[in-house]
Specification:
By secondary structure, this protein is α/β, with parallel strands linked by helices. The chain is built from ten helices and 13 strands. Helix content is 28%, strand content 17%. The chain is globular. The structure holds iron/sulfur cluster.
């Protein structure tokens, strides 16, 4: 097992645990389909950025505030996990964050490249209501400015962690990046690649050697970061996606989860005054749960009860 020396710091000590309270309802929100990077592994390449951009809605932050205020009326304070594209390229994103964070807890996934927009948000939003998942894309962005922005967020009191994708062409440098981040006092989480590379479908195509290398970089045999390295199907299992978890796409349409996000599968729209989530959990209809959404579709207590009653197996 690869070991990091003390001189390189203890990366585990610097992985900040989320301070956001558990909420009964979680939304993933695809804010817009636009990004300043074009990473080869992005799943939006497949659908096509030009086609996806037709769904983009560039509203004033006050309009989004009104939309999420209706959701607050229904479910109280929820957790919104904002992704895009790159959320910080959305116009007046700092204002949007400031307004919506008064209603809901926010978690933003970012490539951490938009230094000025990040600085503005850090100055305006309460760190108790906003956290960051910072994905490093070495094929598109420079290391030092990225690490500087993550460090700035941490200095301002935000939970901000680093993530690195186990995409085959960049796996050769993952241990090196893990050490470089550790020297900056940052823990680097590994994410498992879902997609095609060289006509092979990942994560199924990882070789035994690659799986070993990923686990060595993570530093444990089994843990939250190794979920999806050995994908399991949840098809037919009861799932809270659509009931206590949902994905809001850029055009406001809501879907049970990322896997069940195709035409004809929408369960409503944020812009419909009658919008609400499903009353009960439903069986999973997807082959694989790719983004750990099954895990967030339950809160801990419910998951324990359901597991005890053998209803999740
Ligand atoms: S793919 Fe995952 S989140 Fe979606 S319904 Fe199936 S288990 Fe639930």
């Amino acid at each position: 097992m690869m070991k990091l020396s003390r001189a390189e710091g203890d990366p585990r000590a610097a992985n900040l645990a989320s301070r956001l309270p558990s909420r009964p309802v979680v939304f993933a929100w695809d804010l817009h389909y636009s990004c300043n990077y074009r990473c080869p592994y992005c799943f939006y390449n497949e659908a096509g950025w030009t086609e996806l951009a037709k769904k983009n809605l560039y509203f004033e932050p006050a309009k989004w505030e009104a939309v999420w205020s209706r959701v607050h009326d229904l479910y109280g304070r929820c957790q919104l996990r904002i992704t895009a594209g790159e959320p910080f390229t959305y116009p007046r994103f700092d204002d949007l964050l400031a307004r919506v964070s008064r209603l809901h807890d926010l978690q933003v996934t970012t490539n951490c490249s938009q230094s000025e927009a990040i600085r503005r948000a850090a100055e305006r939003v309460d760190p108790a209501t906003l956290e960051f998942d910072c994905t490093y894309h070495p094929l598109s962005g420079e290391f030092e400015p990225f690490a500087d922005n993550v460090t700035l967020l941490r200095e301002r009191g935000f939970v901000a962690n680093v993530c690195f994708l186990a995409y085959p062409p960049q796996m050769g440098r993952m241990a090196e990046y893990k050490r470089r981040f550790a020297r900056r006092g940052l823990y680097m989480n590994m994410a498992i690649f879902w997609g095609r590379w060289k006509n092979s479908q990942y994560p199924f195509a990882y070789t035994d050697e690659e799986r070993r290398a990923i686990k060595e970089t993570i530093g444990v045999e089994v843990g939250p970061e190794t979920v999806n390295l050995e994908p399991l199907s949840n098809r037919g299992k009861l799932c809270g996606a659509g009931q206590r978890y949902a994905v809001a796409q850029g055009d406001g349409r809501v879907f049970r989860c990322g896997q069940l996000g195709h035409e004809g599968q929408s369960i409503g729209s944020l812009f419909d005054p009658a919008f609400c989530l499903r009353e009960a959990a439903l069986a999973c209809e997807a082959d694989y749960c790719r983004s750990k959404e099954f895990q967030v579709a339950w809160d801990e207590t419910d998951r324990e009860i359901l597991l005890r009653e053998n209803r999740l197996k």
